[in-house]
Amino acid sequence: MNYYPEGINFTDRKFATLNEIKSAIASGEIIEGKVLLCDKEHNLHIDLGIMSGIIPRCEGALGIEEETVRDIALISKVNKPVAFKIVAVRQDDYGNDYAVLSRRIVQLECMRDFISPLECGDIITARVTHLERFGAFIDIGAGINSLIPIDMLSVSRISHPRERVYIGQIIQTVLRKKEEHKMTFSLKELLGTWEENASMFSVGETVTGVVRSIETYGVFVELAPNLAGLAEPCKNLEPGQRVSVFIKSILPDKMKVKLVIVEAFDDFDSPAELSYFIDSGRISHWKYSPDNAIKLVETKF
């Protein structure tokens, strides 16, 4: 069974008959529905069509019952899709049928069958759920979150993850580090080596780039997420600003691209869809630097 990030293949499932509900219970089908309400007891309410469904607070997420996860994990799900199984049909005080749902069961199965067997170097599909200055939180399956630290989002340095990814974006990511209760993922190893990125540009071209940092000795301009060059100092620029740059030289042994800023534009960078050089399978070693480079930059999984 495939355990995808919540919302990646979302269809708001509705049931027309009680028999359909019973069939879903018997088969253990994983269903997705949009949360309409988080009540004062922090139970999640979902419309199933023929009847309403309720995910009790303790079944809303792994760690809620153990008090290792705060209730904000439930409150924040309103108007968002969640994965669940229907476990029973009961009647309320007015004699109306409602379905008892469990998201926790789906997450337990996802942990057992998909996430726990993952090894460092495995590439998976994830969904960006939240951004903080230190990194991007991602749903790696059934609403289970992990982190891509900011320095693992690309080789080109950024000041905030929103410069590289956006909330709701579906990305490929690689498992970088696995600990007992924590997994750390990375993106940069999938975005190409220095040579792969440099091969997209030629000396003498004028191309668009993004100002990433301004130093006293020059301006770093990003040409691609894993490739930046240095231009001579230029006044009245801001990080994130788009510029056109003339490519003066490309030096593989020093992993340097020398640029000349031609023109600055008023628009600022927003994250674009990513281009991958690797997007599936497993990698055990990734070397960013060219063979003849003075400095070795690599990742061993």
Automatic annotation (TrEMBL):
Q: Which GO terms describe its molecular function?
A: mRNA binding; structural constituent of ribosome
Taxonomic superkingdom: Bacteria
Query: Which keywords accompany this UniProt record?
Result: Ribonucleoprotein, Ribosomal protein
Q: Does the keyword Manganese apply?
A: no
* GO annotation terms (biological process): translation
Q: Which residues form a coiled coil?
A: none
One of its Pfam families is S1
Domain S1 motif span(s) in chain numbering: 28-104, 121-188, 204-230
What the entry lists under InterPro entries is as follows: NA-bd_OB-fold (IPR012340), Ribos_protein_bS1-like (IPR050437), S1_domain (IPR003029)
Can you supply one Gene Ontology CC term for this chain's record?
A: cytosolic small ribosomal subunit
State the family named in the UniProt similarity comment for this chain: Belongs to the bacterial ribosomal protein bS1 family.
Protein name in UniProt: Small subunit ribosomal protein S1
- Name its species: Eubacterium coprostanoligenes
